[in-house]
Every structure is written in structure tokens, then in C-alpha cells.
Amino acid sequence: MGATFEPSTESDIVDVVQWCIAEEAPIDVIGAGTKRGLGRPVRAERTLDTSRLAGVERYEPEELFMTAKPATRLAEVEDLLAAKGQQLAFEPPDYGPLLGTPAAEGTLGGAIACNLSGPRRVKAGAARDHLLGANVVTGRGEAVKFGGIVVKNVTGYDVCKLLCGSFGTLAVMTALHVKVLPAPESETTLLVMGLDDMAGTAAIADAMGTPNDVSGAAHLPAELACLSAVETVARAGGSVSCLRLDGIPQSIAYRVERLRQEMRTLGDMALLDADDSRALWREVRDVSAFARPSDGAVWRICVPPDAAADVVARIKTRVRTQAYYDWAGGLIWLRTEAADVFGGDAVRDAVGDRGHATLIRADAAVRDATPVFQPQPPALKALTERIKSSFDPRHILNPGRMYAGV
């Protein structure tokens, strides 16, 4: 077992990385460790544990920004924001139970490094859209600052966005500046019952195109709707198409009525109160339906909404699966049955060039032997390698986490 370094300052991290460069010793960079199951296994004997870099350094509610160290728990951040009526609008998910780790242990740095965004992404954008700046230590052993603390601070390239979705392969984050936004006063969810996958995804995509300011749009087939802890959804007796509306109560009531009128021919409808609505969207956000049992692979597939039902249908002709749709059909969450543990060929063939698929949960041996992320065309692969070499020329940080040899 290799050594574990536990730095408490940015200068400590600089020393560790410079030592690793001198010794040509790759290192596995972690925070709370709740997302070690995402991506390929890292080939490194030593670990850089950043869990001591935690805490909110600066929070300016009036200026709508926060600066926090990367190992700060998301739960702590969200509690602090909620006390001021604010939120992280990209709605970061908690994949702990899905990946076999405790709930509510994920960190802000982990959410940014993996670019994780919840159902509100269709309205508010992805995690990268809310990152204003970052302090990092690159794989060159240099402390660097990108961006700043306000929205209008970018001249030239917005380099900090490269950190989002890099899975710790480019730099070690030491501080993050993020945009915060007002939280809605209330919310409700309109449910449309009984639509098949094609009709359900079409309905929620159409709803996103109306002026009704929908902040979440998901379709749950019958086999997954019945697993919900929200009684109205579980007892629907079939599929449920879900549309979230939030804001002030008077506005919500008006928009709900407009949606009811526009969708009145589609099927029976029901309305969730604020508490049930929040509970339902936490389930959708955290992929709770696939957390137990923990066998079978879980895929995250992004395609155009009008292709989503067809992609799932094609996969089901070859592999036994369960699937549901978020982001108005643009995001498919799919779980293979235990007897078809992987199903990679079926998924990749069905997606084709229409989108991309990421293997979110599988045994380490499977993740080591197969592409976890969408295989890249030659030009994009070459660009990825050049960016990696610019930040980390000796391939010290999380080598192979995303792509073999990178």
C-alpha cells in the first residue's frame, strides 16, 4: 500500500505534487471519496487526500457568490444557502447510495470536478455554468488562479470551465468561487398519467417549449414509478410524466392551470404539494430507483429528446433493462438486469452518433477493461491529450481516470 498525503494548505499541495513529479510517482486525488467509483480505476500507488481543505471562506448573499474549499460538504453549503433563501441552481445530485457510499457526504469539489447537475439543468444550466473561478495546483506543481468572484470577470479563455468534468485529471482544486441564486418560494409538480415512453418524452419536451417556465421535466415508466416513496406517484398504476413549476404561489397556480389546459387531452392528471414535489425530484436527481439492489450496471445517456425512447427501445431488444428519462428526455438513466451485468455493446450501438453514454456504476474490473466515457473521435481525442499535457505533462494526477493512457 502506497503513502497517503493529507495536506491542509495550498502550499502543502504544491510540495506534494512537485515531489511526485520529481519521483515520477502518479497520485490518486480524492476528497471525501464518494465518487471514486465514477470513471476508470486510477493507476497510482499514492493518494492525495484533500479532505482537510474544507469550509466556506466567503459568502456574500447580496452579491450572489460563495467561495469554499473543495472538500466542503454539499450538505453544509446547501444549509448555509437555505438560511438566506438561496441555492446552488444546478441542483447537484447525491450519488452516494447509488455508488455504495453514505448519503450526504459528497463535496462541492466533487460535484464540480465531475460536472454533476440535477433536474434543474434544463432551466439553470450545468455545474460549469455556475463556476466563476478556481484556485488550483496544476500537474506542473504550480499554484494558479482562474476566473474570479463575479460573473463579468472573464477576458480571453474561461479556463476554469475545463476543470468541470475533468475528474481531477488536470489540477488539484484548492478553492472554488461559485454563483448562487435565489431559491424558489414554493413548488409543485403536475403529473400526467399513463403515457408510453414515446408519448411521455414528447409531452415533457413540448412542455419545456411553452412559456410556463418549467424547472424539471421527467418521465417515469410504470415499473419505476411504483418504486417511488411519494404515494401519489407509487399508486398511479402506470407511468407518470412529471413537470415541476416553482416560484411564488400565485404564479405557480396560474402556470399550472395553463399547462393543464394545454395537456388536457393527454390523460389523467394529478398535482403534488411542495413537500411531495421536493421528495419526488430528489429521487429523480439522485437516481434513487437504481440504488438498490446494487447489482447491474448503471448508464447515463445523453441524446436529443426526440431520440430518447428509440434509444431505450433498441437497447431493450438486446439487454434486459429499466430506464427513466430526465431533462425533458435529454437524459436517460438506464440500469441493466443482474444477468446482463454490462450491456456496453448494446448501449453504444443504440446511441451511435446521436449522443454519448457514460458508465456510471460497474465493478472496477469492468470499468478498467472498457471505455467508461464515450469514445472520442480522433480530433477530439488529440485535443483532450493536448489539454492534459498542458496542465499535467508528466501525467501525475489521476492517470487513466477518464481515458486509458491519458
Shape: globular
Question: Structural class of the secondary elements?
Answer: alpha+beta
Mean pLDDT: 95
| Poorly predicted sequence stretches spanning 5 or more consecutive residues | none
Total number of helical segments? 13
Q: Please outline the major beta sheet.
A: 5 strands, antiparallel
Question: How many domains make up the coordinates?
Answer: 3
Please provide the count of β strands.
Answer: 18
Distance between the termini: 23 Å
What is the CATH third-level topology name of the largest domain? Uridine Diphospho-n-acetylenolpyruvylglucosamine Reductase, domain 3
Helix content: 25-40%
Task: Please sum up the structure shown.
The protein is of the alpha+beta class and 406 residues long.
What does this structure look like?
There is one protein chain. The strands form 5 sheets. This protein has a 5-stranded antiparallel beta sheet with strand order 4-5-9-7-8. The protein has a 4-stranded antiparallel beta sheet with strand order 12-13-11-14, with helices on both faces. Strands 16-17-15-18 form a 4-stranded antiparallel beta sheet, covered by helices on one side. Helices cover 29% and strands 23% of the residues. It is globular. By secondary structure, it is of the alpha+beta class. Strand 7 (131-138) and strand 8 form a beta hairpin. The protein has 3 domains: 1-183 and 376-406, Uridine Diphospho-n-acetylenolpyruvylglucosamine Reductase, domain 3 (2-Layer Sandwich), CATH 3.30.465.10; 186-286, Alpha-Beta Plaits (2-Layer Sandwich); 288-369, Alpha-Beta Plaits, CATH 3.30.70.
